[in-house]
Amino acid sequence: MRIEKQHSTWGFSLEGGDKCNKDDMNEDDNAGDCKTSGTVTPVWETTTPPEIDSNMKNKQISNSWSVGINSTQKDMLDDDAHLKVSYSPGKKGGNFGLPLGAKLTVPEGLFGKKDSISCQVAPPSQRWRHSPVLPYYEHLTSEIFILNSTVHPLKKSVIVRIPYYQIDSEHNEINVKGKWKDEEEWVNSDTSSPCIELEIDRLGVFVVTFTPKKETFKVTTQGCLYNAHMSKYISVRVPKKAAEKNFQCAIQITPITEEKVKLAKEFYPFETSELENVSEIIDLIPNFQCTFRRAVSVKLPLPANVEVENESANTDIAVLAKLESGWELVDTKYRFTRTTVTCDVKSLTRFCVVKSKPDRKKRMAAAVSILEGRCEMEKGEVMAFINFQEKTWFLVLECFPKNKLDSKIAEMKEKGFRHFKKEISKPEEPVDNKQHFRRPPTIKTKSQNVPVEFEIFDGLKWTFNVSDDLKANLDSDYMENKDLQYYKHLPESLRKFVIEPKTTEERTLIGAINLTPVGINDQKVREASTMALRIEVDEETVKAYFHEEVIPEEPEVKKEKPNLDLLRTPEIKVDKPTTPFTPKFKPLPASVMERLMRTSRPQIIIERESKAITGKSLRNLSKYVPEGLTLAVHLDLPDSTITGIGFDAISNGLSMADVTYKILLYWKRTRKDKKDLAVEMLADALREMGRVEAAHVVQECHKNSKEVTPEIYSELLSKMALS
To answer: Entry's Gene3D superfamilies (predicted)?
Structure first.
């Protein structure tokens, strides 16, 4: 599988549609020129990075499209038909538009007249059926594309361009995962520059993901001085004989945005009150844990907008390292430049540089620990939207960031949906009536009094169930899967199904959707993420659901009896027909009849081949006579034919029996007589090459009109041995 990507701003526009012309794929054209149905936001960029080599430049395609994405404005009640297209390219092939702005190029001669190829995008409510299981550091950044074809496998490669959503390209890299048709394992395909283009000869399920960028370097026992390419402010200096053996080390950078710092100070004011600024979290990860014999110098960048002019005056800048016990202050002498700080350590691990208030560096470990856990978290909301129709109640259960709350409610309200907010489920505290000895009171910090806010992160998953007076319709996919997963980098994370009353009582119904987080061990976070959505349906809506429409009976139309007298036709007197005259012919003489029936063409006599040289007989015979090339010489085949068959056998890896079989078939086709003379010629050739027993078997089978089989071959050999 070959993959090419264009260099441009990360992201793409979504559009669904039909076939596109080649002219629609030029840079100067509009992305909307293709006949599509959907929203398009084209952002054309043609910047070429200096790192791309000449080979990559030659492979760049004319369409440098990369776009920013908007949420689809489709009706929530649609059946997602716009997410599936099917084409019959025919023998000419061509360029075709796929859903959400994807492109397909089919080469000429790949498909026949009746063959077809289809592409379907997994809708958000059905994403759980195809979503791969990813590690914690890998995230989806595109929709899931499912490609199928009536031709399998493909004789030629097709080119598929998969769009993806905007990501932070400075600290992350794109990857493509594919799952081939009729297989279960997902395959990684490493990529190096944006605009994904796949050249594949097998169809299946494809999705674009991204992982943090990593840069590796080698450390030897003779020392190492490495300056990182990811950041010019990071370097590692390992002195000679500091390491016991050679090892590989990886550099990875995790940014901490100002918004994350602001949220951490809001929720954890006690731990973060002394924090003023912080750098990225920088990982120096060796492939095995080791303690150096001599100190290793690590140079790290200072926090943003922090510069050092006088080393002695900077007692408020600290370097923290994450050890087995947690974050700890690196208590060594710091060496500053204007934008970096260098310290000596005895092991490589995760580092972070912070600026604190004067003489408060020792309190930075708790602050960095909180920031580390909040790098990928944000305030979130889970909400249920219900559209009450007379006979159908559509429910949409969706998770989204809290800053989209007002726009999401307004959008769903326009489509006729009512919203229901969550209620945090707090576990009841058991009442303990036992008497205990008085103990010193626990000193509570300010942060312990602050309730834990509900936050979401990519991959957060809940199991949910519909309870109380409501239930899910059995025809929906609720019965197959009861999980709701949040996809941070995709526009929608939702489940759709139909609900209905549990009983036939016409009263006000109160139902609930209970959500329990999966895979969260922290008790406070688990309690904040456990919730219930209370749904109240008024009595009028319930009555409208059970109301049976009375169809008025149509009045019977009285049929008038037709006047049959008008339909009667007057009788017409017809004379009786006379007997027709039949002429008599004289019989022809026998000599005349014989002359008329005689044919001038010679009689065609169908000659059948001997059963000893049928295809089955020759196949079985070739297993006992592997010396095919020798047999070809005794059958007087041309030298050019023998040489061609020999080279063909070598190139295709044929066995000796296969070579003999091909020679016998070629010899048989060249013979006009396929009975006695052919059998005699084959038997003579076998005797000349020393295979008397094979010649005897061929002649006996011809004599008894039987095919050569392993049983007959063994039986005749036994008789020859006894005689």
So the answer is: 2.60.220.30, Death Domain, Fas
**Is the pLDDT confidence value at 621 over 80?**
yes
Average pLDDT estimate for 193-221: 82
Under DSSP, is residue 654 helix (H, G, I), strand (E, B) or coil? Answer: coil
Instruction: Tokens 């006088």: give the residue.
Output: 310
- Indicate the range of 56-65, 331-340, 385-394 predicted with least confidence: 56-65
Question: CB count, 10 Å around CB of 319?
Answer: 22
pLDDT digits (tens, 9 = 90+) for 670-701: 888 888 888 999 999 999 988 888 899 999 99
Q: Output the DSSP codes for 54-83.
A: HHHHHT--S--EEE--------TTS--GGG
pLDDT of 429 reads 44
- Which amino acid is located at 684 in the chain? D
What is the DSSP secondary structure assignment for residue 362, as one 8-state letter? G
Alpha carbon distance 32, 15 (integer Å): 8
- Rounded to two decimals, the pTM is 0.57
With tokens 């085949």, the residue in question is 637
DSSP labels for 534-598? EEEE-HHHHHHHHPPPPPPPPPPPPPPPP-HHHHPPPP---PPPPPPP----PPPPHHHHHHHH-
- Asked if 69 and 165 touch (Cβ cutoff 8 Å), the reply is yes
The mean pLDDT of 409-425, rounded to a whole number, is: 82
Strands 378-388, 418-420: pairing is: antiparallel
Q: Considering only CA atoms, which of 134, 173, 146 is closest in space to residue 84?
A: 146
Dist CA 489 CA 512 (whole Å): 29
Closest CA to 105 of 175, 40, 160, 180: 160
Position 337, amino acid: T
* Amino acid, res. 224: C
Whole-angstrom Cα distance, residue 174 to residue 208? 7
Average pLDDT of the chain is 78
Under a CB-based contact definition with an 8 Å cutoff, are residues 441 and 363 in contact? no
How far apart are alpha carbons 199 and 157 in whole angstroms? Answer: 6
Does residue 349 or residue 426 have the better pLDDT?
Answer: 349
* Residue 498 phi, psi dihedral angles, 5° rounding: -105, 135
Output the six-digit token pair for 445: 């910090």
Cα R_g (the chain), whole angstroms: 41
Alpha-carbon distance 349 to 250, whole Å? 10
Q: Which among 595, 617, 596, 630 has a CA at the least distance from the CA of 678?
A: 617
Give which of 105, 152, 141 is closest to 2, Cα–Cα.
105
Q: Does position 5 have pLDDT exceeding 70, yes or no? A: no
Place of tokens 């493909």: 154
The per-residue pLDDT for 646 is: 84
Task: State yes or no: cis peptide before 153, omega within 30 of 0.
Answer: yes
Amino acid, res. 215: E
Distance (Å, whole) CA 352 – CA 350: 7
Q: Which two tokens stand for residue 542?
A: 């319930």
